[in-house]
Amino acid sequence: MDCNKEALELMHKHLDGDITREEESQLRNHLEVCVECQKHLHELKRTITLIQSAEKLNAPDNFAENLMQQLPVEKKHVKYLRWFKVHPILTAAAIFFIFMFTGLLSAFEQDSQLMVSNPENLIIEDNIVIVPEGVTVEGDLVVQNGNLKIDGNVDGNVTLINGKLVEEQGIDGSGLMADVGGVNGELKEVDRVFEWVWYNIQNLFKGIFSIE
Amino acid sequence: MELIIRDKIKQVKKGDHAAFEDIVMFYQDKIYQHCHRMLGNKHEAEDIAQEAFIRAYVNIHSYDERRKFSTWLYRIATNLTIDRLRKRKPDYYLDAEVKGTEGLDMYSQLAAEGRLPEDEIEGLELQNYIQKQIAELPPKYRSIIMLRYLEDFSLQEISEILDIPIGTVKTRIHRGREALRKKLRHV
Strand A158-161 relative to strand A187-190: parallel, antiparallel, unpaired? Predict the structure, then answer.
């Protein structure tokens, strides 16, 4: 075995714990006959022991204290960004609500014109929608941004948004009766922003959860 | 210990300042020692060790918890020390030709190698002598010898810390051992 090449290679493999059994016995056989290599390996092992005996150095006093004072104060946006990263679900929910509310509010602002859900057979005067006598509205009636006067019949729910029901001061009792009796369903008046938003949310959830 | 550190890191990631101080307390001596041995002086060692911890804190979110924290921290510290060594301007090169001479370089100005290492040791304590020999190794061998024998990392971990292939780690550790053997055989 060549001392400078093979044996040396095996010695380092031995020191790194990489040596195979076969190689180990090769090395052992060689060391038994080669004093030079024995000495070399001994010196290597001693070198390692000497290195390991080197004095341990300690960090100066107050190292941690000084360090903690130097730590950068987090900028606010970093803090928020990190919070968003840590709470992805809440972030998604927050974004969803922001879009939903801005959507609703802008819709509310756009809808300042008079709107009637099914204007057939109805009379519209100024800001008043009139259900004439003898006319029956089939289904629900929604009036937005206008008042409603019911002389005839509505066969369903009535919803008034930003409007009022004009009550005919009846000449006789039957007129008054017609007002109330003319609606064969619920009568709802919505005229404030929050109620309107609430109404929309209800509708949204009804839309989501009712499968018809 | 790894478990406690892992816990602390989770707290730091949530924004807990105090948990980071505990991590610093645990690693400060090791990291400081590493920087000191790489750089050879107290002042720079403290400077770079602090910088290493600050970087670890700022970048804690890029630390992958499946890997060993000490490996990650040492990697930051080692990169910083290597950068610092590169930026240093050497006072002179031994190879440089001395002005006014022909073909004489600084090697020729050094004392002839007549003195036995034993004489040299006399004035120095053994400890200091060993330190000095380690300090004189070129940085690429020094870092590996230190990580292996003073800080007890496996060859695989050293390869991760220094971001070099394990084969290179082995070659360098062999050469580093041989170089130190030559210097320390007479001790």
Answer: parallel
